[in-house]
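JOB MANIFEST
job_type = single_chain_structure
chain_count = 1
residues = 61
[input]
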Amino acid sequence: MSDSQQKEIQRARMLVLVGAGLSFLFSVSLWFYGMRDEGLFVGLWVPSILGLGNLVLCRDG
């Protein structure tokens, strides 16, 4: 695997982690502002984002 391909993969992994982190922070903020149902709904995005990232970024071997 070339160096540029490794950088692309690292960038994609970071994007997935940032997306999950922002989703988590948004969920917590909704929860503490009293919108608990919405906070729970957005909180379900975190494992979904991480699962999608794992599915897309996994590689054989």
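[summary]
The chain has a mean pLDDT of 92.
Residues 3-55 form one domain.
exit_status = 0
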